[in-house]
Amino acid sequence: MASASLLKSSPIIEKSEWVKGAALRHPSASVAARSHPATSLAVRAASSYADELVKTAGLVPLAGSNDESWCQGLDGLASRSAAYYQQGARFAKWRTVVSIPNGPSALAVKEAAWGLARYAAISQDNGLVPIVEPEILLDGDHGIERTFEVAQKVWGEVFFYLEENNVMFEGILLKPSMVTPGAESKEKATPEQVAEYTLKLLHRRIPPAFLSGGQSEVEATLNLNAMNQGPNPWHVSFSYARALQNTCLKTWGGRPEKVKEAQEALLVRAKANSLAQLGKYTGEGESEESKQGMFVKGYTY
């Protein structure tokens, strides 16, 4: 489940500079993302990547739930985080999922929130900035109201357990899902409706950097754009993988002669989302490929 790498020269934060409860000295440090099994310490040298984003183990069935999952990997996380820090990592990522069609059960929501909070506390204790990502899956035929209801519950639990674990809120990066109807819902939402519900949730809960969650490239950008067309107290940004890379990867397809064309496709997406952060994206001139949804029903993460 590897993400793309964002290569940028950034200052290395010495562990002696990290004081729990104090502001980070280098808030602009960039992220270089890779996938790492929980049992491996094979991180690229800090001389290659200024910062390294560490991912933990995957999802496994949650006993006693309604066919739901939980994210394992807390065992030994402290020692792994300390080792990753020494090798140049400055950010960590823990992602878990909540399924609306499968409940979500109170057990699954609590397990997701508690696991994220423990991971965040452990990361901060070892000098890493935790990226907290509980994803509410698009699976289902529910409407946007139901997603909003579940999102409030999930993020309420997340913040409760972050507080219980003494996590320093200004030292985390939160990555929520946008509030949309289920992928199979007959009630399609406009970008304005997605913006309304999502911003309403954020006003009640969280500061954001969004994932795309299976939306098409254009949908994710239009929704982000709508959120930035009204006043809000945050810089509403994005943290996409598929909604930045899909057209680029399909254009490239591993063919050397397509590298330049693929780079141009990636630049188009980056520029579109840059404009969306300013509320100035129009959607004009987008390719048909960029309008194709990327939702996969029952996708195994």
- Distance N terminus to C terminus? 8 Å
Going by CATH, the architecture would be Alpha-Beta Barrel
Task: Provide the succession of SSEs.
Answer: EEEHEHEHEHEHEHH
CATH fold descriptor: TIM Barrel
Compute the number of helices.
7
Q: Determine the structural class based on helices, strands and strand pairing.
A: alpha/beta
Calculate the mean pLDDT score and round it: 77
Looking across the biggest beta sheet, what order are the strands in?
1-4-5-6
Output the keywords:
Aldolase_TIM, schiff base, fructose-bisphosphate aldolase activity, 301 residues, four-stranded parallel beta sheet, globular, Fructose-bisphosphate aldolase, two-stranded antiparallel sheet
Would you write up a description of this structure?
- This protein has about 300 residues and is an alpha/beta fold.
- It has a single domain (about 15-290), classed as TIM Barrel (Alpha-Beta Barrel).
- The protein has seven helices and eight strands.
- It has helices at about 75-85, 105-125, 145-165, 190-205, 215-225, 240-250, 260-275, and strands at about 55, 60, 70, 90-100, 130-135, 175, 210, 235-240.
- The strands form three sheets. The protein has a four-stranded parallel β-sheet with strand order 1-4-5-6, with helices on one face. It has a two-stranded antiparallel ribbon with strand order 2-3.
Helix and strand layout, with pairings?
Blueprint: E1 53-55, E2 59-61, E3 69-71, H1 77-86, E4 91-98, H2 106-125, E5 129-136, H3 144-164, E6 173-174, H4 191-204, E7 209-210, H5 217-227, E8 237-238, H6 242-252, H7 259-277
